[in-house]
Specification:
CATH class of the largest domain: Alpha Beta
Shape: globular
Radius of gyration: 23 Å
Number of domains: 2
CATH topology of the largest domain: UDP-N-acetylmuramoyl-L-alanine:D-glutamate ligase
Number of helices: 18
CATH architecture of the largest domain: 3-Layer(aba) Sandwich
Length: about 475
């Protein structure tokens, strides 16, 4: 099959704007009918907010208790046994691959359930239901919660309050998929694979297992080495069922990481075809071309830049948060804007490789200014990295790479502020030094980044890149709704 891959960063603005507008409409209105449910689920243990315990994703005494999830499923009639599943694990690319596969199958005419995490603006984004591919409605989610709450409460008492936020929401997703009578579900593992709550799918219920990539993320939670991480993710593979690993598509096109995800999704579609599912070449092609996700290589429109008070600015949002995804991000930028002046606005969680992330950004392109800030993670600050600590990591990365900088702990930087020469119109621009600064306000970061890029001499385009976490991306999108 000849797969025609377009440049993923060509934007196709009309279709992208339609998708973003649809999502904003869904999430910008208050959802009072969900208040009781959100209060309930927010009261549960949430490892996205608090951080994952050491060895939680390993097959050890410290690992998550998969038996608890099995008991929970049994209480609700084992809804996960009523549909076939494509199960996806990996360090990066899970969400994009899930979206590609889901859209391929929907295009073919199947009713598809898709379960992913985290979300950008509303928790309903995690459950896409049926042939439309829209997030589950607030009404449907609320009705389900009230129907099962008594059973949930009883389960919570029997499990001594140990049932987590993720386990409850996964249970609700599986119940909805069963009640919707979907043809197939595409399910993203939350952490690792073998001990993840989604890994209760039996061999007979599994259509395909997909492992996208293996990288050094959540090291402590997954055993401390690449080998243990790979073993944890391989736990979703079941005997006698097909599994599809990453296909490295070496095309010299923008967004090569997304081309790899598309190739993986195509492989899964072909596996399903081999198993008897009807999946045409046309559905594969159309499904890939129609796939968009908020916060992944997303350029804001001129209207959205205006709304942020950054008229004329080119703003790129990308939820990259590992060194591998940082490398992919820089490669995409270099392909789209080889001569661009760059300003990075960064916030990260405290369990990421900050130095490795910074090193990949800085070694891939000359950066005019890096502004470090903070963003709430899963509605809390437990996992938020203070901007001051993040600055130390970036300084270390600069030093390792031998790049000269001026940062806001230096007298030279303070002198620049006094003389109002932070515009690069002084010798700062001539000697190649770049600026590293911390800023508590996201809007302040964006404003400063835009000012620096606008005042720099030359005709090169300037690009403001907001990255480091999907949560800072969410903050930007939320501010547009404000």
């Amino acid at each position: 099959m000849l797969l025609h891959c377009r440049k993923f960063l060509s934007l196709q603005r009309g279709r992208r704007i339609t998708f973003i507008t649809q999502m904003r409409t869904l999430s910008s209105h208050p959802e009072p009918e969900l208040k009781e449910f959100l209060d309930y689920i927010d009261s549960l243990k949430n490892y996205e907010k608090s951080g994952v315990p050491t060895a939680a994703g390993t097959d050890s005494n410290q690992g998550f208790d998969l038996g608890r999830m099995e008991r929970l499923m049994n209480r609700f009639g084992n809804p996960h046994s009523k549909f076939k599943v494509v199960h996806i694990a990996g360090t990066k690319g899970k969400g994009s691959t899930a979206a590609f596969i889901s859209n391929i199958l929907r295009t073919e005419g199947y009713s598809v359930g898709c379960y992913t995490s985290p979300h950008i603006q509303t928790i309903r984004e995690r459950i896409l239901l049926g042939r439309s591919g829209n997030p589950v409605s607030a009404k449907v989610l609320n009705n389900l919660f009230h129907r099962i709450k008594q059973n949930l409460d009883q389960a919570m008492r029997e499990e001594n309050g140990r049932i987590s936020h993720f386990e409850v929401f996964t249970t609700m997703a599986f119940i909805l998929f069963a009640e919707e009578n979907i043809d197939i579900a595409v399910i993203e593992a939350g952490l690792g694979g073998s001990r993840d709550a989604t890994n209760i799918i039996s061999s007979s219920g599994l259509a395909a297992s997909v492992i996208t990539t293996v990288g050094e993320e959540h090291l402590a939670a997954l055993g401390g080495s690449l080998e243990t991480i790979a073993m944890a993710k391989a736990g979703i593979i079941k005997q006698s069922r097909p599994s599809c690993k990453l296909i490295d598509v070496k095309l010299q096109m923008l967004g090569s990481h997304q081309l790899q995800n598309a190739a993986t999704a195509t492989c899964v579609a072909l596996c399903l075809r081999y198993l008897g599912w009807k999946v045409s070449d046309e559905s594969i092609r159309a499904g890939l071309e129609q796939t968009y996700l908020l916060g992944r290589s997303q350029f804001l429109t001129s209207e959205e830049a205006d709304a942020l008070g950054l008229t004329g600015a080119t703003i790129l949002l990308d939820g990259a948060h590992t060194k591998e995804s940082a490398n992919a991000l820089v490669n995409s930028i270099r392909m789209a804007f080889p001569e661009a002046r760059l300003a990075f606005v960064v916030a990260m969680a405290n369990d990421k490789d900050h130095v490795g992330f910074a090193r990949e950004i800085l070694s891939g392109a000359h950066v005019d200014i890096v502004l470090l800030t903070e963003a709430a993670i899963a509605g809390g600050v437990t996992r938020t990295t203070p901007a001051s600590l993040l600055r130390n990591s970036w300084i270390k990365a600069y030093e390792e790479l031998g790049i000269e900088i001026i940062h806001d702990g230096m007298a030279e930087y303070r002198e620049l502020l006094k003389t109002q020469t932070l515009s690069y119109e002084s010798n700062l621009g001539n000697d190649g030094k770049t600026i590293l600064a911390t800023e508590s306000s996201l809007k302040g970061c964006l404003r400063t980044a835009n000012e620096v890029l606008n005042r720099r001499r030359g005709d090169e385009i300037g690009v403001i890149v907001v990255t480091g976490s999907l949560h800072i991306v969410s903050s930007v999108l939320t501010s547009l709704n404000g």
